[in-house]
Amino acid sequence: MNDPEDLRQSVTDWLEENWDPDAKLVEWRSKLVDSGWGMPTWPERWYGRGLSGEQAAAVLDVFAEAGAVGVASGGPGRLAAVTILEHGTDAQKEKYLRRILTGEDLWCQLFSEPGSGSDLAGATTRADRIDDGWRINGQKVWNTSAHHARYGLLVARTDWDLPKHQGLSYFLLDMDQEGVNVKQLKQMNGHASFNEVFFTDAFIPHGEMLGQEGDGWKVAMTTLANERRMADVLRNASSGERRGSIYEEVRRENEVLMAPYTWYPQRAGRVDLLVKRAQETGRIQDPVVRQEIAKVLIMARSAEWTAKRARAAQQQGRPQGPEGSLGKLAASNVARAAAQAHTLITGADALLSGEQSAENGIIAEILVSVPAISIAGGTDEIQRNIIAERVLGMEKEPRFDQGPFRDVRRN
Amino acid sequence: MQFTFTEEQEQFRDMVRRFALEQSPASTVRRLMATDEGFEPALWEQLSRQLGLTALRIPEPYGGSGFSAVELGIVMEEFGRTLLCAPYFSSAVLSTEVILAAGTETDRSALLPGLADGSRRAAFAFTEVSGSRAVDEIDTRATTDGNGRWQVSGSKRFVIDGHTADCLIVTARADDDVGLFLVEDDAGGLLRRPLVTMDATRKLADVDFDGTPAIRIGGPGDCREQIEAALDAASVALAGEMIGGAQTLLDSAVAYAKMRVQFGRTIGSFQAIKHKCADMLLDVESARSAVYAAAGAAAGNHPEAPALACLAKAAASEAYVRTAAETIQIHGGIGFTWENDTHLWFKRAKSSEVLLGDPTWHREKLMQRWGY
Complex ipTM above 0.85? Predict the structure, then answer.
């Protein structure tokens, strides 16, 4: 199997024998999961083939050429799968992995709390040990897809006398129970992409803790590290020209998974619309508008090039320079400047929202979505701390949250 | 476009960096900026004859080494780090680029070898009293007696190293065309006066021509396009110098923030300072990306190269000036003293911001070049 041509041939042969665009989605994926071609880099014992990243890319290529649908790969399910594979017991892997990959079970992440946003380790949702398991009380927030999810990845406090990072444990929670109450959370831009999740004496049996008691922070780091790579995964086999009933099922699945993200392009400022809008409105003649557009485009292009420099250095195996940590902060600056330029171009029409407003509501949506980009996934302020401390080597702030968590000041 | 440097380019950078650090400590910059000439012949000799840096962009047949805008950018960036004082930008960049862009075979053979080995230093006189670099606003006139002898009359201002150069390349109107004219330093009717500059590390001069004998270069036709191309190349090079200087400022601001103690802790442990430094890093790295992209595009004759020259100059100017102001702020009171070195870079940032067109000018030009 070391020869790339042999590998491609094996995949092609297998697809020829098994791929059926009119199969039921779950039935097809079950076959795929058993074959190991669905997650080629995973170990053979767990639905994989132990291949390298490069080999896996070749497998994906063959799938794409054949138009064959892959395993369920979008959303928090992928995060659950990766985290369980790394930290789970055999029993947990047995129970959960397969149904994640077939798309039968959807998952959600239960990390952030009203009282701990940037300070994730300050979670106060409590897990108290009872005879046959754990009793959960507290509240989580910003939980994408929780209203569809069968299971949740929960970080809760199991020990209040240890320092805050050490008192957390990581659980696999059954969402389908009376003590779990999911409420959609409406955002300032009118969308409801997230949820609040309330726990009132919810129950988790023994055996559903991921890692050991007190490992919660460490395990959560696995999830978060993969969350940062999620952007690459948020795509699926394109169903454009393909014929077969399975594509319809995939399309419906994607619709549900992608629904929370429809406003994300607007959140980033829609730099792509600036010149078009300025030309259509005639504002492109205004020297001030021209200056502001140029400023945004310079920022946006520079950010792209910085990302390319980071990737090129990585590919050459060189140590990554500061350029690798700057993307998120740059994106916030670009989005804010773009929103400002859109306002300038749109003028009084920026007073409106919805279908009657500019660009069928898109401009209004930009203006009320951009504030999210400098908060979600690590605020600008946290990013600046990281850059200053890890890249520039500046001294850390004095901390006031050492010692037993019980005594730490909190919300 | 390339987004990294080759092994050879990295080695070249190391060599230039060592040279600049050794030869141009702040004490030397301060000594030279107090002189009228602003440079030392010995250092010029070293960087030209020994290191061949003046020959970088000149093709091999004319005694050069034929490198691209990328290598030139490396030299400018490293010189910018230490504010190395030498007529490099005026002679090896501006004058060399305009001859490369416009020179006929005769011009190249006559002029480039001397510029390559540094035995002759040229200055490019392209700015009128208005301060504009626009080729359509040139008032200096050139007239001919019909036998190939030309005379130039008019005034040029802000000519970089104009009072110390061995010869001047002058933009002037000849009938409806804009042409290029070579004037020797001992020509009659030539008056050169050094200007008092805010940035004393960059020497400027007023140059008056009164029926001054000149040789026409660049052939008989209009040279506006070629002059623009040379100024674009020089803008990218200058932007390289600017990110070098901005990096020095950032390094010094961060080092000071790590060392300076107030209220019982380093000022760098306060988020107010940390966040400023993080923003400065983003600013400098973004400008660096723009400059490298522009240099790469120029080296590869990419169709977007002229637009990116404007983009890089605007980005680097803004970043340098902001970084300079913040570096003074982080240093506090000491940063406002003459004794502290920060003001040397602050002033270079200011002079670079305005030279060859300020950021507003470049942004407008960028939009036009993008076709908007």
Answer: yes
**Least Cα separation, residue A258 to chain B (angstroms):** 31
| Distance (Å) of CA B351 to CA A32, A292, B209, B242, B251 | 65, 24, 25, 10, 21
Quick check: A236 pLDDT over 80? no
Tokens encoding B281: 């890093």
Residue B293 near chain A (CB below 8 Å): yes
Task: Give CATH superfamily name and number for B225-369.
Answer: Butyryl-CoA Dehydrogenase, subunit A, domain 3 (1.20.140.10)
The reply to whether residue B360 touches residue A291, judged by beta carbons under 8 angstroms, is yes
The 3-state secondary structure of A254-272 reads HHHHHHHHCCHHHHCCCHH
Report the residue from B269, B289, B363 with minimal CB separation from A309. B289
* pLDDT value at A233 more than 50: no
User: Per the structure block, which two tokens stand in for B243?
Assistant: 């990110």
What is the pLDDT at residue A242?
75
User: A64-114 pLDDT, tens per residue?
Assistant: 999 999 999 777 888 999 999 999 999 999 999 999 999 999 999 999 999
| The architecture CATH gives domain A105-228 | Beta Barrel (2.40)
- Residues of B with Cβ-Cβ distance to A287 under 8 angstroms: 364
**Which of chain B's residues have a Cβ under 8 Å away from the Cβ of A299?**
286
User: Taking CB atoms and an 8 Å cutoff, what residues of chain A touch B286?
Assistant: 299, 302-303, 306, 326, 330
The H-or-E segment that residue A183 falls in is strand A180-185
Contact B74, B26 (CB under 8 A): no
Please write the tens of the pLDDT for every residue from B166-193.
999 999 999 989 999 999 999 999 999 9
Q: Does position A354 have pLDDT exceeding 50, yes or no?
A: yes
With 60 as the cut, is the pLDDT of residue B207 above it?
Answer: yes
Q: Which of B254, B271, B285 sits opposite A306 (nearest CB)?
A: B285
Contact A76, A372 (CB under 8 A): no
Out of B268, B290, B364, closest to residue A394 by CB: B268
Quote the CA–CA distance of B310 and B361 in Å, as a whole number. Answer: 9
Q: What span, in angstroms and rounded, lies between the C-alpha atoms of A80 and A145?
A: 13
Q: What is the mean pLDDT of chain A?
A: 92
pTM score, whole prediction: 0.93
Pick the CATH number of B122-223 from 2.40.110.10, 1.20.1250.20, 1.10.10.10, 2.60.120.260: 2.40.110.10
